[in-house]
Every structure is written in structure tokens, then in C-alpha cells.
Amino acid sequence: MTSPSRVRLTMAQALVRFLSQQRTARDGHEQPLFGGVFGIFGHGNVAGIGQALQQERAAIRYYLARNEQAMVHTAAAYAKMHNRLRTLACTTSIGPGATNMVTGAAAATINRIPVLLLPGDIFASRRPAPVLQQLESSRSQDVSVNDCFKPVSRYWDRINRAEQIVTALPDAMRVLTSPADTGAVTLALPQDVQAEAFDYPAALFEPRVWTIPRARADRDRLHEAARLIRASARPLVIAGGGVIYSEAGGALARLAEATGIAVGETQAGKGALPDPHPLSLGGIGATGTRAANVLARDADLVIVIGSRLSDFTTASKTAFQHEQVRFIAINVAELDAAKHAALPIVGDARAALEELLPLLAGYRVGPAYADGVAAARADWRAEVDRVCAAGGEAGAGRLGRQQSPAITQAQVIGVLQELLAPTDVIVCAAGSLPGDLHKLWRARDPKGYHLEYGYSCMGYEIAGGLGVKMAAPERRVYVLVGDGSYLMMAQEIVTAVQEGITLTIVLLDNGGFASIGGLSESIGSGGFGTRYRYRNPATGELDGDVLPIDLVANAASLGARTCRATTLKQLREALTSGACDTQTSVIVVPVDREARVGGYESWWDVPVAEVSSAREVQDARAAYEIARRKERDFL
Ligand SMILES: Cc1ncc(C[n+]2csc(CCOP(=O)(O)OP(=O)(O)O)c2C)c(N)n1
Ligand SMILES: [Mg+2]
Questions:
Q1: CA-to-CA distance for 291 and 449, rounded, in angstroms?
Q2: Strands 155-158, 115-121: pairing kind
Q3: What local confidence, expressed as pLDDT, does residue 401 receive?
Q4: What pLDDT sits at residue 547?
Q5: Cα Rg for the chain, rounded, in angstroms?
Q6: Is the CB of 510 within 6 Å of ligand 1?
Q7: Comparing 243 with 398, which gets the higher pLDDT?
Q8: Does 517 sit in the ligand 1 pocket, CB within 6 Å?
Q9: Which pLDDT tens digit goes with each residue over 381-422?
Q10: What is the dihedral of CA 205, 53, 174, 23, to 10 degrees?
Q11: Spatial separation of the C-alpha atoms in residues 272 and 404, rounded to whole Å
């Protein structure tokens, strides 16, 4: 007999019911934590979680995806768009279905984005072992492929008994909703345990609200920060993703306006201080603007807010050249707050900025600094206009199969900038586009620029676009994707079509991996292995004609409305015809592979071969050794 305070359910049913009842709240706004469950079923989850999702479908929605990696990206994009207050869960079978999620887990964890992963696992009973897709070990039976999730998860558990979820689930939610600890949370679910029944306490299924705190920073350190800022002649703010997740943009603008301190932005932080603001310098670091990078070079104090200080942000620790430069780092995570020997202000970005502002009363940067910021900004705006207007080489035929890919990637960015509304969202992740966008895009809304550049994972773009649109259906979502990324993972177009989720996908075709090709040239290897070519039967090398890939037909076959734009006029027409608003569309734009946007006062450490038979490599190594001398230790 089940007592009234107990409910007899399978472990999977209990888990799904529990998820449907979780909510988050911040600043008094409450919402369901889970917007649904994405999944692909196999023998490792169909009878457990699959059955439970069917039974509980009124409480939580299930979405069928095409690829397990992609669905984790969708969940992460959804969570990022919701400032980490909401997410999606992902269910897979055992074996390859499960390990397909490892890349997505790493991307989410590296970006500090919550996702709940529910891979199926081998029988806890071990009786039918080895089950189809089981990895065997001669040293232990306590091993499965799901152990691969451990380093890429912020929380990892294997549920070997049905009752374990009573403690595991609240713990998993604690990590998912922790601003400092969040990332991928993996609960590996043995396929037999999923189907086992247990008398669960009814209290487990009561609605539960996870309050997202705004952790207050240490008072003494805030006073010390104010003292450092007051003593600074050339301060600079670096705004990272944490500013946006904490909705600290308003507080940042108030601090910037009160003090005159200018702001550079990381990829995740772009839009924190929207571009029209006179103190916005745009992107900073290896892919930064000249305006931000010149100020970083000369800054005597860098105030880092909500950033991991990746090598792109710090230009591989060459960005800050002032002899006495010091750092203040405001971050919810101690790990990040302590980087660069910063004065660590451990706490929520918005709360810390609000508390810091009154401590700075009366402080203002000098007129020379203010004039410098205004001039750097004006110079940069003119440069962006110039770069976005400059055409490619008409008739160059660099793609081989098309006669004149005269359009440049920068021109495409320029057209999008001109046509998109401030609240529209651009989504991107890998290739040459993120760098170009970081430099050129004028983000006018904190949620309008969605870059996954912590993992820079090719294939994130379309899957991520799906998550963005699910999180913000009222916004138009533009996925910008290179041909290489597209070919790696385009299949979530099918999921978008299935769900009636409208994305506009702008596919920039430059015939291969142009960004890595450029990198390869810069390290003396001539772009080796980065173009889509046939293997030449005579030489055995990939130097034959360019492969005839019909990307328009490919996208059409997945259910998208498609067109090809070979001129800017056609691109404008495709974007403004209105058709994109009603159906997922793919606009294929051939672009000039060689028309690259250069770097501005920046560098990125990519080690060049120390010895080589090639002269170009030797030269590149010599240049590398000189450039590397600017790298600094901040101790
Ligand atoms: C999953 C994954 N594999 C490899 C890389 C390394 N990589 C970065 S950019 C790039 C080429 C991307 O090609 P494409 O999408 O066509 O963009 P393009 O460089 O041409 O602008 C590669 C291979 C990566 N970032 N992600
Ligand atoms: Mg390409």
C-alpha cells in the first residue's frame, strides 16, 4: 500500500514530473526553469524517460531533435537568451547518443551556461551486460561511456537506485541555478533503473522556486576598488557576458556616465553598453576594435566585469602594455575574479556596480582621456563604414565554380546592420564571422548579439538559433554561418521546420575553411588542407577543382525556403521580401574568400613550428618570437 504522502512512479516518471515543477526567480520575477525536453530515443531511454515524457506530456513539452550535440546547443542558446534563468533538458539513449552530447556539454560548461543532460546508461543490474553499445573494461565494471561527461560537467551523477533521485535532483538544480557554478549538469540514467518503480515522497513534486541570488561583494574590497579607480588616470572597463546575464547594463551605463570611463566588450558581453552610447568602444582583444585596443594598451587600470579573460579578450596577454597596469575583477566566480592578480570583487555584477557607484562620487576622468575616447570612437566608426563598403574583387572567381563572388563578408555584415531592427538577434559561433562581427557589428540591444565564442563550436549556429528563437519568439533571429560550419551541422533546419520556428539563415560560402586557411597562411603553411577540393588522381593531393556543393539544394532538401544572393541588391531583396518572416529560410551568399577584415592593434598566440624546411615557416617563426615578447605575466 502506498501511503498518502508517497507516490508510486518509475524513476523516469518521477524525474520528469519533478522537472516540470521547478521554477526560478530573480528580482521578484518567477518562471518555469525548464522550457521543455529535447530528445532522441533509443533502447537506453525510450522505455524509461520516453514513456515518462509521454505520460507527463501535459506538464512538460517534448521536442524531437536530429542530433544530440545540436540539441545541447539549442538548450544552451535558450538558456543564454534567458540570462541563465531558464533552460531545456536533453534526453538520449546510451552509447553514441549519449557521447554525442559531450561536445555540447563542454560548450555549455565553458560558457557557464546551464543545461541538464540525461544520457541513458548501461544496466545497473549488470545482468544483460554487455548491452548493445556498452563499453567494456577489463579493470572495472563501474565504467561506462558516460564517464566522459565528468570533466565537461559542473555536476555529474549516476542514478544506480530509483530512490537516489530524491537527493540527486535537488542537488542538480542547485548547480544549474548557481550563478557561479552553473554549466552542464549530467545525470546518467541506467536504462533498467529508469523503468523501476519507487514510492516517492509527494513533497518531491511540489512546485519549487530556486531564487537566483545577487551575491553582495565584500565591502572592504569595494572601497579598495574605489580607491584604485580614483587613483587611475587611464581606466578602462571590460564588459563580459556576466554583465548581460546579471542584467547590469543599466548600472554599467550609470557608472560609465558618472565617471567617463569607456567600455570595451568581449564576445559574450557585446551589447552590454549598446553601440550608440558615446562611451562604447565595441569589441576588445584579438578581434577587437582599434578604439578599444588602443585604450587597453595604455590603460593603467582595467575593470573587468563578468569576464573569463580568455586569450581572445586579452590578446593572449599582450593587450595591456602599461607598465603599472592593475586589474579589478567583478565576478560571481572566484576563479574569474582572481585572474590577472586582480583585486577580486566576488559578487553579482549589477549589485557590485550599484554599490561601487556612490563610492566614486566626485571622480571623473580627465579631459585628455575623454577627448581620446571620443576621437577613438569617431575614428573607429569611420573605419567600420569604410570596411563594410569596400567591395571584393569582381570577376576574381576565387571559388572556381562561381564566376564572380564579388561580395565581401564585411559587406554582408553591413547590409544586415542596415536592415535589421535593434532587437533582432544575430547568432554565430565559428569561422571568420565571429571576429568580423566582434569588430564591425554595432550591437544596439544586449540580447541582439548572440555569439558562442567560449568553445567556438562549429555547428552551434543553426541549433543555437533554434534555442534563441524558442526563448524569444517575438524577435527575428538571423543565423550567420560559414559553409564549413553549415556542412558540419545543418540538420536542425529540419527541427525548425517541424516546430514552425522561423529562422533566417545567412550562409556565407567562401569554399571552405577560410579563417583557418588564413591562419595557416600566417604561420607559413599556405592554407594547406582548408579548401574544398577534389583529390587530384595524378598527384594524390587535394588540389583539383573546387567541389561542386549545391548548398541551396542542400538547404531546400531539409525543408527550408532558399535563395542565392550573388549581389548586394539580391541580398537586400531576400532579406526584405517578407518571406523570411513566415518560413525558415536559407540565403546562400558566395563571398570573396580573400577579402578579409584585418586585425587592429591585436595579436593571438598560435605557436609556429620552431624548425621547418619551409622558408615561410621560418619567417613566421621569427615574427612569432618577436610578437611573443609582448606577452605579460600579471602576478
Ligand atoms: C567543431 C569544430 N571543429 C573545428 C574547429 C576549428 N575551426 C575553426 S573555424 C574553422 C573553419 C570554419 O569554416 P567556415 O564555417 O566555412 O567559416 P570560414 O572560416 O570560411 O569563415 C575550423 C575548422 C572548430 N572551431 N569547431
Ligand atoms: Mg567558409
A1: 19
A2: unpaired
A3: 45
A4: 86
A5: 26
A6: yes
A7: 243
A8: no
A9: 999 999 999 876 554 444 444 455 689 999 999 999 999 999
A10: -70
A11: 39
Tell me which residue of 126, 118, 114 sits closest to 42, measured CA to CA. 118
68 CB within 6 A, ligand 1: no
SS3 262: strand
Here the cell at position 71 is 540539441
Which atom of ligand 1 is the closest one to the Cα of 515? 19
Q: Where are the beta strands (DSSP E) in 273-429?
A: 280-283, 301-305, 326-331, 343-346, 425-428
CB under 5 Å of ion ligand 2: residues? 482-484, 510, 514
pLDDT of residue 2: 53
Closest Cα partner for 116 from 15, 230, 266, 42? 15
Please state the rounded mean pLDDT for residues 547-572.
Answer: 96
CA distance 431 to 538: 31
Which ligand 1 atom lies nearest to the CA of residue 512? 16
Please give the distance, rounded to the nearest whole angstrom, from the Cα atom of residue 228 to the centre of ligand 1: 41
Can you list the alpha helix ranges (DSSP code H) found in 113-232?
165-176, 191-195, 219-230
Cell of 16: 520528469
Ligand 1 atom closest to the Cα of residue 456 is 25
Mutation probe of ligand 1 site: the residue of 516, 593, 597, 604 with most atoms within 8 A of C-beta:
516
Please name the residues in contact with 66: beta carbons below 8 A apart, sequence gap of 6 or more: 40, 491, 492, 494, 495
Q: Which atom of ligand 1 is nearest to 488's Cα?
A: 1
Amino acid present at 403 = Q
Position with higher pLDDT, 3 vs 395: 3
Cα–ligand 2 centroid distance for 234 (angstroms) = 40
Q: Report yes or no on whether pTM surpasses 0.85.
A: yes
Q: Give the number of the atom of ligand 1 that is nearest the alpha carbon of residue 509.
A: 16
Q: Is the CB of 458 under 6 A from ligand 1?
A: yes
408 pocket-lining for ligand 1 (C-beta < 6 Å): no
**What residue type is assigned to position 488 of the chain?**
M
Distance in angstroms (rounded) separating the CA atoms of residues 633 and 630 = 10
What end-to-end distance do the CA atoms of the chain give, in Å?
A: 65
Mean pLDDT of 218-244: 98
Q: Whose CA is nearest to atom 23 of ligand 1?
A: 513
Interval 434-480: pLDDT, tens: 999 999 999 999 999 999 999 999 999 999 999 999 999 999 999 99
Cβ contacts of 130 within 8 Å, gap of 6 or more: 122, 136
**What pLDDT was estimated at residue 625?**
97
Task: Annotate 223-250 with b (16+ C-beta within 10 A) or e (fewer).
Answer: eebbebbeebebbbbbbbbbbbbbbbbe
Average pLDDT, the chain: 95
According to the model, what pLDDT value does residue 542 have?
Answer: 80
